Amino acid sequence: MIRFPPQDPVPTPGPDPDSDFDKELLAAMTAFADTTATPVIDAAGIRRTVRRRTALTGAAAVAAVAAIATGAALLLPGSPSGGDRPAGTAPAPAVHSAPPSPSASPSSLSATKGTPSPVAPPAPGATTVTVPPVAGLTRDAATRLLDAAGLHYEVHELTDWKLPAGSVINSAPLPGHTTATDTPVQLFISKGRPGS
Fold first, then answer.
1. Less crowded by CB within 10 Å, the N or C end of the chain?
2. Secondary structure of residue 97 in the 3-state scheme
3. pLDDT above 90 as % of the chain
4. CB of 153 within 8 A of CB of 184?
C-alpha cells in the first residue's frame, strides 16, 4: 500500500508571507471605493423620454389606423376607386376639355397644395385625359391601356428589387391626375434585380 502525504500540511510557526499582499489588496480596494463617483440618475429626464416615446408610439398607431381605414374605404363598392368594378378591368379614362380660366392668376396657382408634378400642367383649352392606373401591370398591358386612353408615353427601365422584369413600377403623372393628350406619360419599367 502506498502512503500519500497528508492533505493539509502542518503550519509552521513564523511570519505569514501573504500578510503584506492582503494589506496591499485591502488598501487598493479602499482607494478604489473612495475615488469612484456615485452614479447620477436623472429621473426627470427618464420620465420625459418615456412620455415622448409613448406619444410617438400613439401617434404612429393613430396614423396606421387612419391609413388602414382609408385603404378599406377606397376598396368598398361604390368608392371613387371603383371597388365595384369586375376584377381585372381598368376604369374607363375620363376625357374632357379644360376650359380656359381667366381668373387663374400666377399667385393663386402657386398657392395650391401638394407635391408638384414633374410634368407641366396642360395649357388652357387643351384636351386632357386622366392617367389610368398602370403600376403592377406588364409593359404590354400598360402601353395598351395608355394607347386606349389616347396618351403618348416614354419608357424608362429601372432596376427594382421587388418587381419582376417587365412590370410597371409607376408612372408620371401619377394615376388619377390629368394630363394633356400631347404630353407623354413617363412609364417606369422594372429591369428586375441586378444581375438577374
1. N
2. strand
3. 22
4. yes
More confident residue, 67 or 95: 67
In 3D space, the residue among 166, 172, 170, 169 whose CA is nearest the CA of residue 184 turns out to be: 172
Could you give the CA distance from residue 5 to residue 58 in angstroms, rounded to a whole number?
Answer: 74
Residue 7: exposed, middle, or buried by beta-carbon count in 10 A (0-12, 13-18, 19+)? exposed
Q: Is 118 within 8 Å of 172 (Cβ atoms)?
A: yes
Give the bridge partners for 95, in sequence order: 129
Rounded CA separation 101/127 (Å): 14
- pLDDT tens-digit series, residues 7-19: 665 555 555 656 7
Question: Over the Cα atoms of the chain, what is R_g?
Answer: 38
Question: What's the angle, vertex CA 49, arms to CA 46 and CA 51, rounded to 5?
Answer: 110
| Distance separating alpha carbons of residues 53 and 175, to the nearest angstrom | 37
